[in-house]
Amino acid sequence: MGLPWYRVHTVVLNDPGRLLSVHIMHTALVAGWAGSMALYELAVFDPSDPVLDPMWRQGMFVIPFMTRLGITNSWGGWSITGGTVTNPGIWSYEGVAGAHIVFSGLCFLAAIWHWVYWDLEIFCDERTGKPSLDLPKIFGIHLFLAGVACFGFGAFHVTGLYGPGIWVSDPYGLTGKVQSVNPAWGVEGFDPFVPGGIASHHIAAGTLGILAGLFHLSVRPPQRLYKGLRMGNIETVLSSSIAAVFFAAFVVAGTMWYGSATTPIELFGPTRYQWDQGYFQQEIYRRVSAGLAENQSLSEAWSKIPEKLAFYDYIGNNPAKGGLFRAGSMDNGDGIAVGWLGHPIFRDKEGRELFVRRMPTFFETFPVVLIDGDGIVRADVPFRRAESKYSVEQVGVTVEFYGGELNGVSYSDPATVKKYARRAQLGEIFELDRATLKSDGVFRSSPRGWFTFGHASFALLFFFGHIWHGARTLFRDVFAGIDPDLDAQVEFGAFQKLGDPTTRRQRGSPAYLNKVYDWFEERLEIQAIADDITSKYVPPHVNIFYCLGGITLTCFLVQVATGFAMTFYYRPTVTEAFASVQYIMTEANFGWLIRSVHRWSASMMVLMMILHVFRVYLTGGFKKPRELTWVTGVVLAVLTASFGVTGYSLPRDQIGYWAVKIVTGVPEAIPVIGSPLVELLRGSASVGQSTLTRFYSLHTFVLPLLTA
Description:
Transmembrane segments: 20-40, 98-118, 139-162, 198-217, 237-258, 449-468, 544-570, 600-618, 630-650
CATH topology of the domain at 272-445: Photosystem II CP47 reaction center protein
Pfam family, one: PSII
Subcellular location: Membrane; Plastid
Largest sheet: 7 strands, antiparallel
Shape: flat
Strand content: 5-15%
Organism: Ilex paraguariensis
Helix content: 40-55%
GO cellular component, one term: plastid
């Protein structure tokens, strides 16, 4: 039987031996990729300058992870810290890469063996003789082994008891090295930047995993729980396993992007928030101020700033500056950093020290503005020279360098001053070699950005995979279809006893009432309508989730009732709207209650609608012949969102005003028709009385009419 690509896994659903085989093969693929990727990176990696051309500037992805776990030396005789080594030992970068490839080959052979010898006695049920898996016991085994590995890593590897330790550095990424870590058992262990928390958390989590694994190995689940969680279904294992994976992916994406002790900046580069908050700039100024307090000259104080610290304070190392579609390392963008030119200090002709306003993260270009110590603009590079008042030429700005290669050099030529002012927008100024790699000058992201993007994407994919497979195993009867023989049992309203055709309902009314009923029946066909409503086929799997649509309708009816009540007091004018809402909340009888119910039922209606859409999608309620139901549902969803947008503007408060201004301004980006479309929505060029009138009419008349 031919299978589409997304159904090929059904081959191993009921085949325990080959299910094991494909998992071993997957492990082989992952280990093989890691080993081969490590060898490729080692082939292109240049370890000559760990300060200005570290691994993260060169786009290394797996070398930082090996270094984080204690690998620092190479069989090539170099060390990641910049020195040379004579005896790197077995566990060098190349040794780890080779071990992964050997492990991959062994897993490959094991996978083939298990594919061929799939019919093993271990996979047979002793009672029936058929292939089967004791999934709760397998869960206990895996949990126990994972607990042992977790405990061992924290208690031995990280602490250095039997292992190298991990990479530990100071808060500014200057003194990093591999060292043993003592577990942090106090409240400080919950600080993500404390390395001791890594050891203590692995020990604690490993201990819990070992105990939980032993529990699941020795205690059988109760039958109700076994059936309720579908523990006998292999797809349940898939769904719950995916849950663990997407949770871990979200966690590591967060720790990588926001920074933590597990993602040192020496290995993965700075975070974007360190640029946004001026983290390294503040530390540099603190050190300079401390030097000046010790009677050092400005030149001496700046000369003592480590080049490594200055390099962190450069926007080109911000992982958020690179676009998702800009392939290549950071060195392929702005070039290879060669040296620090020094810190530029700008002064006007009156001797005031000026500071260049730095470029925010999400700007490609930014106006050059120089401010004094009080934040007053004193100079700029104007867009229109004819109207300029603060140009470099008019203000007489000069620049002098302190520290670095240009220490003591000053410039007064306006063109040169403007050149360095533009470069000072990007942080500390460095000489960059763009010729070697033919760098194009467009910023790239660091491995920190790529890791975060990749793991966040896979986490979202696995999250929806968890929902999908969980729904498939919980609503298995829906996906499999309904037995047509169940018709007599599920016809609701036709029998007094469900499924018993001998108990068909009979009318036991007095004769005169029967005559009245018959008179109306002849003219209105009441029975046909009643049968159509009450004699629907109801599947046996119907549960509370099928009530979400009715709850949404109830919320809508509550909206209609409370909204109608408020129209007696609300005045749709820009001068009286806000005051009328205040009157409803403070003066009108139960006005506060009516408006609160209206507001919260609106939020509840949107929430119930979203959950209802998920329920319909996950249970296949949109399939033939219910396509029109799905289409009308989408239309109603759009109308519901329109209710929210129009209703938000009616109180005429700051939140409502700016929400409407922003939402109605979005179409302006559309070429040609953008501006007319905005005026059509607002009724004028700006948000005013015409906008309020339109939104009030839509909210109270047009949208309810369309919804009904």
